[in-house]
Every structure is written in structure tokens, then in C-alpha cells.
């Protein structure tokens, strides 16, 4: 009896660890309502939730007054946050709380994946824990969890389960079911799904059951691929229709100038993205982390030659499919666009090279698990596993250990009071944050929170470029004109120029941060009146 209880407690221990990590991580990122989401992408998702829950509050918003401007962004995380908002009463808090289940599910998934590949409990636990910290792969892209969840975090949570499903196929027709799951995953994160699906299809294609001939097996692989395409078509048509629509005339010029400048050349050049991946992940890492990556790169060869683990070929096949679905497709798209003198159909699939990070981690931990079975190393397994987990968490800072690169200080009392004050202003009170571009995340993040926390429309936000460009909205031209006017204003602030911008954007209030220049503050004071100060922010009503 005692033995059974002990076994049960041992089997339960990893899940307790996962729950504790997820709970501590999430609690450290919460600051109470009104909660500011500490990432701009997260703030945009929270704004979509606000627009769907309270459409009457955004009839005067330059983006969210028209559902077509954000309808292309389809992910199950949006309704999930909306449902949780009914419980919390605060959109920002609901969004941040999503981190707890996503972290827990991701770690459980990688733990089960490790149990399937190399067994035991220690090394699957190590794999699960090391899958969490954020690892940047190039400017603006990463694997892992930031201080707040993102839609890609939801896909990271289901990723190990998709891999598990692919590893467990026993009949060729099982491919169809797994690819159907991959198809559904496009509505969790549409960017991640295609490349991962192609990798999983390649993985299952090489895993032919002995009793089945190649023609039949390949036929089922084709069926599986077609099922994925069938699931993806509704989204793909909407996405390509809107993205491609913005590839002509004035909108194309604006899109090229603004989007490329904002996201960087790596999204338009797969070669540059791969170069940045190598530099960011390997060459910029400390020597001790570089050695870990070198070990990970050598892992498939060691597993095949030393331990005869033929299932490694399945993961290598996944890597080939992933490379084709991210780098290969992007190269083809960019090459065709170059020949036609046009723009690429998409710029996002290259982001999926981030999945090489968990792939390398799986191979690394698998190799260490096999080495630790040797009598001379077995006793040091616990020390070795703990060392790897600690090294990883120290090397890649996060809310629990160190400071995440995109995390934000706790929301100040003054910021909460400001958002609460804005919330009780008349509905439709357009707010124009200044300066519109800032090196401080505090400025842009609070500006986004005006929408989902105060439920007020904004007169102009630089981040709106993403919605307007991806949706193919003709409003991108107007947005660009205002952005240029604001740039000129910040170079030479005058009350007249600011008054013209306030009039053009129908701004009811100016929200000026302390980082604005003295000339900008003076111009705002001449244009606005009845100033109210909230910490580093000053709110002025436009005459």
C-alpha cells in the first residue's frame, strides 16, 4: 500500500511543479485592475476583445469602428479572454491570467513528449521546464513565454501534443486524423500552423508501417495534406484577400514604407532571417550557452551512432518539413515577387524558424537522457538535469528569474487613476497620446490600454499600422499621412501644427507623457485646457 502511494506521489510531482511554476510566473505579472498588458501585441489582442464586447464604445475609433480592420485576426485566444473577462471584470487581468493554463499545458505536453521519446521522469521534467523561458531567434521573434501570454503562446502549448499525435500513428490512415488536428490548429495561431503541419506531415510520411506499401502510405499522406488545406482555406482566403488587396497603388507604397520599417528586413528576406537566427541564437550567446547549443546540434548524430535511436529520423524529417514550410516557402514567395516586381504574398511564415529551438531542446535532452543511463553517469543524473534547467533559466531571463526583455514594471497607482479617469469620460472621447513614437514601452503600452481598460477610442496609434496594413484597409494612407504629420510635429512642435492634427484626428483629449520635449508640452498646453496630472502623464481637453 505504501509503495503504491509513493509511486502515485512520484508520478504526481512533475505536475505539481508545473502548476507551481505557472502560478508563480502569472502572479508576478499581475498588478490588479486596471491591468496593463506588458506587450504591444498582447495589448492589440486585448483591444480586439474590448471592441467585440463593447462595440458601442468604439464607433468613433479609427480602427475598431470597422470590424473588417481586425476580422482577419482569428484565434481562439480572443473568445477565451472574452469569456474570462466575464469572471474578472477586467480585460487586461483576463488576458494575463491566460498565462497560467498555457504555461501549465505546455509543460505537461513537453513532459509527456519526453516520456514517449526517452522515458523516465527526470529528463522529461527537465525538457518541460526548459521549454518555457523566452529564446529570441531574430529581431522581434522568439520561442517561449514572455511576461504576458501571446497568441503564439497558445500554439506553443499545443505543439508538443501535435508531435505526440504524430509519434503515435500506427496505421497510415491515422495521418488523416493528425493532419485534421493540425488544420484546426490554424485557428489557434494561423502563422504557426502551416509550417508545423508540413513538418509533422513529413515526419509521418517517413514513418511508414511495415505492413503497408509505399503507394498506399503516400496516398494517405496526400489525403492528410489535403485535409489540412481544406481546414486552412477559409482563413487563407480571408488573409490573402486582405493582404494582397493592399499590394496596389497608394496603399502598396504606404505598406512597403511603413511595414518594412517597422518589422525589419528579416521578414522580407529569408536569407537575412536565417543569418539573424544564427547570430542571435548561437553567435551572440555566452560561451557556456553556445556549448549547450553545440551539444544540441550534435545530438541527432550521437543518438543515431551511439545509441541507435532510429526515431531520431522522425524528428529530422520534421526539421526538414519545418525548414521548407518556413524558409523554403518564404524564399519562393520572395523570389517570385522579385521577378514580378511586386511584394510577397506573406511575410510571416519565416517566423516559424523559432520551432527549431524546441526541436533542438528535445534532441539535446534526449541525448542527455541516454547518456545518463550509463553506469558511470547515472548517479550524476539529478545534478546534470538540475544544472541544465538552472543554466537555461539564468541564460534566458523571465519574470521568475531575472527580468524579461519585454516585461514592464508594475502598473503605478497614477496610471491606474488615469485609466479610471478616462473610463468615466463621455463615451467616444478620442484620446491622442503624445509623443506618438517613444523609446519607452510605458508610453505605447498605456496608450493601448486606453482602449481595452478605459474603453475609449484613440485618435491615433502607431501600432494601428499592423491592423490597417494586414486588413488591406484604404485607411492606411490616411494613417500614414497623420504619422508623417506627427513626425514633423516632433521635429518642430508648434501649437498650430498640433491643433491641425487634433482637428484631423477628431481628438477630444491630448495625453502627454513626461518624455515629450518641452516644446511639445508647451504646444499641448496652448492647444488643450483643464490639465490634469497623473504621475508622468498630463491629460488636456482639446479646445
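^ C-alpha cells above, recovered residues below v
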Amino acid at each position: 500500500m505504501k509503495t503504491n502511494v509513493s509511486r502515485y506521489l512520484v508520478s504526481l510531482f512533475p505536475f505539481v511543479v508545473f502548476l507551481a511554476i505557472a502560478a508563480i510566473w502569472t502572479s508576478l505579472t499581475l498588478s490588479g485592475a486596471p491591468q496593463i498588458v506588458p506587450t504591444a501585441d498582447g495589448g492589440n489582442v486585448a483591444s480586439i476583445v474590448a471592441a467585440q464586447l463593447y462595440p458601442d464604445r468604439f464607433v468613433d475609433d479609427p480602427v475598431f469602428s470597422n470590424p473588417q480592420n481586425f476580422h482577419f485576426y482569428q484565434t481562439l485566444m480572443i473568445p477565451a479572454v472574452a469569456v474570462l473577462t466575464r469572471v474578472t471584470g477586467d480585460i487586461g487581468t483576463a488576458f494575463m491570467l491566460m498565462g497560467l493554463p498555457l504555461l501549465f499545458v505546455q509543460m505537461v505536453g513537453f513532459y509527456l513528449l519526453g516520456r514517449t521519446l526517452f522515458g523516465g521522469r527526470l529528463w522529461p521534467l527537465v525538457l518541460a521546464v526548459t521549454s518555457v523561458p523566452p529564446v529570441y531567434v531574430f529581431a522581434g521573434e522568439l520561442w517561449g513565454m514572455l511576461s504576458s501570454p501571446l497568441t503564439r503562446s497558445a500554439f506553443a502549448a499545443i505543439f508538443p501534443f501535435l508531435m505526440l499525435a504524430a509519434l503515435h500513428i500506427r496505421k497510415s490512415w491515422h495521418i488523416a486524423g493528425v493532419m485534421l488536428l493540425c488544420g484546426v490548429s490554424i485557428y489557434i495561431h494561423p502563422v504557426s500552423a502551416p509550417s508545423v503541419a508540413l513538418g509533422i506531415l513529413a515526419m509521418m510520411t517517413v514513418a511508414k508501417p511495415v505492413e503497408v506499401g509505399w503507394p498506399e502510405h503516400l496516398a494517405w499522406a496526400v489525403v492528410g495534406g489535403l485535409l489540412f488545406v481544406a481546414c486552412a482555406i477559409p482563413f487563407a482566403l480571408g488573409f490573402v484577400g486582405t493582404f494582397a488587396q493592399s499590394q496596389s497603388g497608394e496603399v502598396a507604397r504606404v505598406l512597403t514604407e511603413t511595414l518594412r520599417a517597422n518589422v525589419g528586413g528579416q521578414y522580407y528576406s529569408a536569407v537575412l532571417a536565417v543569418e539573424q537566427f544564427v547570430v542571435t541564437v548561437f553567435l551572440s550567446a555566452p560561451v557556456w550557452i553556445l556549448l549547450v547549443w553545440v551539444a544540441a546540434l550534435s545530438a541527432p548524430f550521437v543518438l543515431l551512432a551511439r545509441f541507435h535511436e532510429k526515431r531520431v529520423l522522425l524528428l529530422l524529417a520534421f526539421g526538414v518539413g519545418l525548414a521548407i514550410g518556413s524558409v523554403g516557402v518564404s524564399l519562393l514567395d520572395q523570389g517570385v515577387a522579385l521577378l514580378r516586381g511586386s511584394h510577397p504574398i506573406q511575410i510571416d511564415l519565416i517566423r516559424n524558424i523559432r520551432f527549431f529551438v524546441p526541436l533542438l531542446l528535445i534532441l539535446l535532452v534526449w541525448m542527455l537522457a541516454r547518456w545518463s543511463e550509463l553506469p558511470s553517469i547515472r548517479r550524476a543524473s539529478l545534478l546534470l538535469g538540475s544544472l541544465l534547467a538552472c543554466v537555461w533559466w539564468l541564460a534566458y531571463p523571465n519574470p521568475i528569474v531575472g527580468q524579461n526583455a519585454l516585461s514592464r514594471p508594475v502598473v503605478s497607482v497614477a496610471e491606474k487613476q488615469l485609466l479610471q479617469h478616462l473610463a468615466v469620460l463621455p463615451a467616444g472621447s478620442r484620446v491622442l497620446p503624445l509623443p506618438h513614437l517613444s523609446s519607452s514601452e510605458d508610453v505605447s503600452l498605456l496608450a493601448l490600454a486606453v482602449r481595452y481598460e478605459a474603453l475609449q477610442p484613440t485618435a491615433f496609434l502607431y501600432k494601428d499600422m499592423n491592423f490597417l496594413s494586414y486588413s488591406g484597409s484604404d485607411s492606411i494612407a490616411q494613417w500614414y499621412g497623420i504619422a508623417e504629420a506627427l513626425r514633423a510635429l516632433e521635429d518642430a512642435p508648434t501649437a498650430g501644427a498640433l491643433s491641425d492634427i487634433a482637428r484631423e484626428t477628431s481628438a477630444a483629449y491630448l495625453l502627454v507623457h513626461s518624455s515629450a520635449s518641452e516644446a511639445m508640452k508647451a504646444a499641448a498646453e496652448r492647444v488643450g485646457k483643464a490639465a490634469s496630472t497623473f504621475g508622468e502623464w498630463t491629460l488636456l481637453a482639446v479646445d
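DSSP finds 23 helices and six strands in the chain.
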